Amino acid sequence: MLRELRLVPQVLRHLGLQWVLFRSWYAVAQKTGWQELGMPAGEWTDRPLQAWLRSGVPSGPEAYAAFRQKSETSFFFSGPVSSLGIHSEAAVEEAENLLLGLWRYFGGPALQVGFPPDWHLNPRTGLCAPKHWHWSRIREEACGDIKLIWEPSRFGCAFLLARAYAASGDERYPFAFWMLVEDWARNNRPMRGPNWRCGQEVAFRILAWCFGLRAFAASVHSTPARVASLAAMLAWQAERIEGNLAYARSQKNNHAISEGVGLFTVGLLFPELVTSERWRQKGRRILEEQAIRQIAEDGGYIQHSPNYHRLMLHDYLWAMRLGEVNGCPFSKSLYERLARATDLLFQLIDPATGEGPNYGANDGSHVLALTGCDFTDYRPALQAASYLCRGTRLYPSGPWDETLLWLWGREALAAPLQERMPRAIRADESGYYTLRGPESWAFLRCARYRSRPSQADQLHLDVWWRGVNVACDPGTFLYGGPAPWRNGLGGTRVHNTVGVDGRDQMTRAGRFLWLNWAQGRVRAERAEGSLDYLEVEHDGYRSLGVTHRRGVVRAGDWWLVIDDILGFGTHTTWLQWLLADVPFELHEALGRIELKLATGPYAVRVWCTAPADLSLAKGGTAGDEVRGWRSRYYAAKEPAISLGLESQGALPVRFLTLLGPADAMMREIDPFHVKLEGEAACLAAVLNAPGSSPIAARVDLTLPTGSFRLVP
User: Fold this and answer.
1) What per-residue confidence (pLDDT) applies to 10?
2) CATH number, domain 431-664, options 3.40.50.10420, 3.40.50.300, 2.70.98.70, 2.60.40.60
3) SS3 state at 66
């Protein structure tokens, strides 16, 4: 209690009095049952389709189906989906596995959960959430991470079954869709159970059901009775979203956008509903206003995460394209803002693989899974967003084009190609920086936070070489679960940065809340030919009187990272590099590890000005379970190599790290000099004393093509 009281001033400073008052009221409303009174549980039969329709619209299944056919609004595609030209054997194979009960969770490994699944089961814990309770009475972590319960109920399977149906024409797939919808309805009565708890989850289900309804429209299994029943169920769910919009807005993140899309979709596609116009207008207004609030002028997204950035793009892709085909496009300024968001995410993606840094929170969301590309491949979203905003393609033809086929048809495949390579960027407002060499690039995080941080990872550095994420981010794994996995990969110690005295850079006040925000700033930047230099620092250890300053030198495809830990007194400092899990050789005396990558040998060497202990871990260690893991897919983790260097003593302390192809030889390394020689290149760096800025005094690089000198 005393700790919570001490945190109140920080909560007020970062989030504001209005937010605190609303969230306090909301918690009281849940505990006292006020929410249940405002949105009471019921039965589907309490409000059949007739109760939702405007006067004069027939409610009988046959008559309603005839009415819909005459007045139906436009969708992304028309006619049978077989005409789209989708040929995906992989989609058919995965759909067959789904019919056998193998469901892919969060784009990762498939789990055997049956067909239909138990909609209330957490397959990791084997526990079921109560399905008869009102959603407001269900605690999110009562059965483990609730996202594992929510995942099947998002109905991402609708997109998979539609893709398989388009490729094969097999009527088992639309039958499976309707079977799942009906089973879900029997087991998830209105406002009851965990799958009604989150408005965003409801919105994702709305999108998937609407997609399935149109994709299977020509199937014999899409009977008038089923269509009428689905329309009523969609109305129930839109009402659920509308009734709790204030909470979605209070989160100041993707929830408000997703729920706005859900309202807009039902309001637009079902104009016969008595509340359709209000939902359409309200959803549209939310989408316009939230884009201004959540997308920065430089294109960055408020949630500090490439995966959430893609989720936002998917939401807007759906809504804006749906608006276009129905003659109600969104504002020009929204298209311009989304174009900037597309451009920034493009700069963070590896061109060889389509993957990006697994930076920030990654909850596995993949709203428009309309290609056979892996979950980690961002090219489908970027290709579609580029076409939406500019009518051009970013990438040449490939499997990522399937999204274009679904949303625009074959004409989109002939769009002009504006293929370009990502470049080095400096996005100060969002705190993203990249440096790029001939075969490598690096992503650096240095933010001046204006919205809630996602993880305590200031100055984290990702390094890529020949399409391999050599030095990587650990990701997320789980939001909820037993210690230490309750958002356990969000801390400082598991990132590629420096920790002090075992502390996080910020104060953890909940699963998703950090206080005492560490603020970063750029101190120096310079480029000269094949040389780049970027120097940054953050104040996350100001309570200790300590500053972390990091200088990054790119010399061709070599990377020199200098970390100065500045201050007074005796402290324990810790440098970690989380590396790809490949065969390796460790030369402990040299502080050097050589990775045996498929693309060639790669070396990382660490050094410290003070006595330091080198350690290596993979897949956790005794006393530090979260060390040496990475999670590329939510709820799934895999081992990674954690190379750590720990020192205890008086400050200042300097760490040096060299990363690059393993054919280089170290000729000199000390607090003020680094000299590296390769088969065809030579690097020499002269460093200023710790505490000086810039850290690098001079850098010389000799290549067969010429010599370069950089004086920051």
Assistant:
1) 80
2) 2.70.98.70
3) helix
